[in-house]
Amino acid sequence: MIAMTDVYIVTLSLIGILISLPALLVALNLLLPTLTGHAYTRLARTPGRCFVLGLPVALGFIVWMAITTQARFGLLRSSAFLVAVLGMGLGTLGAAGLARLLGERIGRQAATPSSISSLVRGALVYELACLVPGVGWLLFAPLAGITVLGAAVFAVLGWLPRPEPVPVTSPNQVIANN
């Protein structure tokens, strides 16, 4: 039988996590602007490549943790915990880039496009989209999680997409347009 205190523990823990996640994503954007900026750039311009890179990285983390949790050696077994922390850290770094991207897109449509308020709104939208029963849990969260993991790996490695080509106009085109 579940005691009322157990219900309170779970409920208040979830509320605490839901309140602290946007704060973590904003803090990462403020403390690591270069890394989150690289993740943001990758997510804005090459989300497909982020997903393609994130898929084997996520599978690698999962396979490593599944294998090493069955190991008999304490050091090898504890590496599963370290790999899980590394994976969650990379995922959070990529999620900070996604919050920045969502915040920028929300800021374009808002009456007051403050960067911090847009960033908080982007983090809240991301968080709440993952909480939608069914679609959010089983479709959006895994796809977004794999994609932000790939964006974070790109950001840590410093691999940015190629700059977009600037259209070159010849002097004849400029004269013809006038």
In short:
The chain is an all-alpha fold and 178 residues long. It has seven helices and no strands. The termini are far apart.
Q: Give the beta-strand count.
A: 0
The backbone outline, from C-alpha atoms, is globular
Helix share, percent: over 70%
Helix and strand run = HHHHHHH
Mean pLDDT, as a whole number? 90
Which oligomeric form is depicted? single chain
**Unreliable runs, pLDDT <50, ≥5 residues?**
none
Number of helices: 7
How many angstroms separate the termini? 81 Å
Radius of gyration: 21 Å
Largest sheet, in brief, is: none
Strand-pairing-aware structural class:
mainly alpha
The percentage of residues in β strands lies in under 5%
Descriptive notes:
Helix 2 packs across helix 3, helix 2 crosses helix 4 and helix 4 packs across helix 6. The chain is an all-alpha fold. The mean pLDDT is 90. The protein has seven helices and no strands.
Key descriptive features of the protein:
81% helix; mainly alpha; globular; 7 helices; 178 residues
How do the helices and strands line up, and which of them pair or pack?
Elements: H1 4-31, H2 33-45, H3 47-68, H4 74-109, H5 115-130, H6 135-157, H7 171-177
